[in-house]
Amino acid sequence: MDIQKRFSACWQSFLACFRKSEPSTDESNRVEKPVTVIENPRAKLSSEPDTSSATGRPLPRPPLRAEPDIYIALYDYSARTEQDLSFNTGDTLEALDKSAGDWWLAKALTGISASKRGYIPANYVAPVESIDAEPWYFPDTKRLDAEKMLLAEGNQQGAFLIRNCESQSGELSLSVLDNGKVKHYKLKVLDNSHYYVSKTRTFPTLKELVQYYSRQADGLCVRLGEPCRKMEAPQTYGLSYNTVDQWEIDRKSIKLLKKLGAGQFGEVFQGLWNDTTAVAVKTLKPGSMDAEDFLREAQIMKRLRHPKLIQLYAVCTMEEPIYIITELMKNGSLQEYLQKDKGATLKTSDQIEMAAQVASGMAFLELQNYIHRDLAARNVLVGENNICKVADFGLARVFMKENDNVYEAKEGAKFPVKWTAPEAIHDNKFTIKSDVWSFGILLYEIMTFGQMPYPTMTNFQVIQRLPQGYRMTCPSNCPKVLYDIMMDCWKENEQDRPTFETLQWKLEDFFDLDVSSYDDAARY
Ligand code: AMP
Fold this sequence. Notes:
The chain is an alpha+beta fold and 524 residues long.
């Protein structure tokens, strides 16, 4: 070997020594890490020097590498397409790519899909070891809902949940089922971030607090038992990963199962998408609207996402009839729901709560500068546990519904007169404030269990008498404060009408808690 070759061989082995100590960037060399329970599972790079060496001197930096991003499933999910993963509550999943936002590429680490990869709805999981992953944490649950949920079938003595306190933001409440009644406790936080129910015992984490009171009541009305059973899983955003952006879907993927209702512009069916997912399908009579006009509106509608708005999932517009595919609501329209019940099960508190939900959905539209144009009980849909969602927002711009209550103001323009603000009828001036007028009428419908507004008057009489200051009287059994809200919505000058934001908090305030209605833990 000549001198040059020997020098080259030495140089290569010298370099190889260095390479061995460098972290490999070759993916094929990646070793799958076992599942570890980590404090903060959000992806983090270990760039901080570790000072835990015996000498206290920093150890060499570990290779830059993302921690696995581990999540716990909060609900069961059944795969809807071949690309997504089925999982059950409590399964662990590693998020591999979260860039799509609402649907993540993930790998199941446990459960029925263990070691498989696929898409998962991001709102069905929470970071492992985070408070959101705790089965007893129901953050956005209102006191009234907490009571309803704990009193629902399946919960035993001691069932409990922890929720955000409505009356004091930033504070938490513990709601517990005891002998068929729900008791509430304030969870206070000390300056050192410790939690307590009774000052005599504080806990660094909520989990420790729960563990402690699961072992003994120690002043609570009852020892904590099982976490409250979760209600329905939330809606996913879009039907699947694929339909989020590409939402014109193949109509062959839709099966129409059962007719739910019909209007002048078409029929509504319960349907099945991809043989897996229950949906509502609105089929539009050919010629009832311009497909391009509708598509433009639907683009906007699709972006309007809120728990109190019916989600538009997908459309089929390539041929007639046009299909509008939305989430399915078990109990149909609020109008029918109220008329069927007539007060048999619905109490005033339920009626106000339903109105508050509609106001909440509308407050979101208000914030988005979007106008509904046809707000009425017939366009609010009801799910389980009196959950209400506003439907058909914006559709009125594309077509106007016609039924018995429609007045033809101008040729081609049809208004549901009894719901429409005077300035919208006379000057075609539709604004969020004309929606507020309609909300007042909807409130009347709610409080009269779906009675026709202005029951003794024709549309023409209504149009004549409103400008003279005529307004409906307070329905029987309707609290005065609620009637005052209706009257505010029917102010002649639209600027004097409240915003939906105000309407929402006014209605929600009916449930605002008297702090003294909380139970004290003994030894306070
Ligand atoms: P529409 O043509 O929108 O007035 O709907 C007619 C009827 O179909 C309504 O009164 C409801 O009972 C029912 N319906 C409409 N959309 C849905 C939905 N998303 N889920 C369940 N039922 C619905």
